[in-house]
Amino acid sequence: MQASLLTKNRHEELLSNELHALLDSIGTTKKIRKDTFLFQEGMEAHDIYLVKSGLVQIGKLGEDGKELTLRICKNDDVVGELTLFSDNPIYLLNAKVLKSGEVLAINKDKLEHELMQNSALTFEFMKWVSNQMRKFQYKIRDLLLNGKKGALYSTLIRLSNSYGIEQNNGVLIDMALTNQELAAFCAATRESANRMLVDLRKQDVISMNKSGKIFIKDMQFLRDEIGCEHCPIEICNID
């Protein structure tokens, strides 16, 4: 999990220059503000979005009112992509802005038309969407098979793969998240997430600095507890 390796794998996930140019040519830049929504579950889907700056949380609200976070999207991530090539599309998830920035709003109909004219770009885009679906499946699998504790442990591993900075005695997750935000990755309550984090600190698996960033001291403990299969970093991340 060295920084250079993370950068390399992150680069391999990004859209090609050709596809990026297409999105730029038909998109419109839009400012986004913290604590607002790009879209919410059930709304009619007219656009997909390319994040240019800021952070966008993709998640779903359960019937019990608990929120399940599936992704945290940053620069060059696409959101709302599941609505492409579907009749009467609606957004299936919520996209909440965690950090103000800008997105490129791309009209869904225009993008579909352009992709139909270029089979190579269509193949690339659909391959990218398929990769996102694999990530969703793995995250849901972790929650179902390992429970809330396993979901938290796998979330910490994924966060380290997306935002980790390797240091001499562990990995610093260079992103401050509240216990409530961490709980949302596990469909748990804030109190439950707090108890699990306290237990990890008592076992000296993690520590937390004053800014709320988590430092993982014993990554192998987390991996062993969930029966980690050492999935590729391009799948095992939080983006």
Automatic annotation (TrEMBL):
Q: Where is the Cyclic nucleotide-binding domain?
A: 10-119
The keyword Transcription regulation is annotated on this UniProt entry? yes
Q: CDD domains recorded for this chain? A: CAP_ED, HTH_CRP
Domain HTH crp-type, residue spans: 146-220
Q: Which UniProt keywords apply?
A: Activator, DNA-binding, Transcription, Transcription regulation
Protein name stated in the entry: CRP/FNR family transcriptional regulator
